[in-house]
Give the backbone structure.
Amino acid sequence: MDGIKAVGFDLDGTFMRTRVDYAKLNAADRLVCLEYGIPFDEIDFGDSPKRPRAPIRTWLEEHGRGDEFRVVSDDIDRAFTECECEFVSEATPFPGSAECLPVLKSMGYKVGILTRGSLEYATRALGPLFREFDVVIGRDHSVYDNAKPSPKAMEEFAVELGVGPNEILYVGDNSTDWLSAHSAGASFAGVRTGSGSDELWASIDPSIPVIDCAGDVVELLR
């Protein structure tokens, strides 16, 4: 993989083995909206693999409540982070994850984490490993809808790393990870941990390089 200057990792299911109640997490924005009298189930969120926040803003603006969006959005973010952190004490790096970081650095690569989780969650999940990364970015780095699977997430990640998106090899375990990297022009490697599998990667793009664990990216780059 010529031209790679940085290696980025997804957090959950890729770099770390974590436990998150995704059913609860995926329902959190609906519950917050209903508390504010927003008819969540009547809003068209499109076909994005992850529900965007902009349609909520649009509904509020159309009903003369646009000034409430920031408060609603902040409450959704707090609810998300609360769900993410419920079992954060159980987070552990997959075998080889922590060990690969000094090796990658010795090879001249920058290393970072790009996650849809909040920065608070990432910080707590990584624990002492947090300081081993050049950059750690969560969904709250900028506008919510810029988070993965948007290519803007990878573009913002590249800016913080001081490289171009095409100089990043991003490692992930699901289609959201691949989509953000691919759409931004970054290279991608899929893992067999988390939700990753040979079947998943073959269904997306048979040319995706597949590794057992995140730490195996070292061998991929040698």
Observations:
- The first helix runs from residue 22 to 35.
- The radius of gyration is 18 Å.
- The chain is about 40% helix and 15% strand.
